Amino acid sequence: MTASPEFPIRKTVIEPGAEAPQFVLPAVATDGSRFDFDLAAEAAAVKRLILVFYQDDGMPVCTSELKAFAQEHETLTGAGMAVA
């Protein structure tokens, strides 16, 4: 990945619980439709927000981890957390 003014590469790690930098990224909804995910808008609408990132659909570990996380979606949303 190369840096650009729009998407600069971070050289520091964002620690758990720290405030995330604001960003807008292209995303795909569960119904397959595409939209722009706006972190500021999502965070303003909920009290707790969990952001889930993974590297690649074709990577067996990434795919299995995402499936395992998806199995906990109802538990997380039931506890008042939004998952994006």
Structure description:
- The chain has 84 residues and is an alpha+beta fold.
- The protein has one domain.
- It contains three helices and four strands, in the order ββαβααβ.
- It has a two-stranded antiparallel sheet. It has a two-stranded parallel sheet with strand order 3-4.
- Strand 1 and strand 2 form a beta hairpin.
- The protein is globular.
Entry keywords:
84 residues, alpha+beta, two-stranded parallel ribbon, 3 helices, 30% helix
Brief overview:
This protein is an alpha+beta fold. It is built from three helices and four strands.
Contiguous low-pLDDT stretches (5 residues minimum) are none
**What's the rounded overall pLDDT mean?**
82
Q: Enumerate the strands of the largest sheet in spatial order, edge to edge or round the barrel.
A: 1-2
Distance between the termini: 22 Å
Q: Please give the largest β-sheet.
A: 2 strands, antiparallel
Tally of alpha and pi helices: 3
**Oligomer classification:** single chain
Helix content: 25-40%
Structural class: alpha+beta
Strand content: 15-25%
Radius of gyration: 14 Å
Order of helices and strands: EEHEHHE
List the helices and strands and how they pair.
Elements: E1 24-28, E2 34-38, H1 39-45, E3 48-50, H2 60-71, H3 73-78, E4 81-83
Parallel strand pairs: 3-4
Antiparallel strand pairs: 1-2
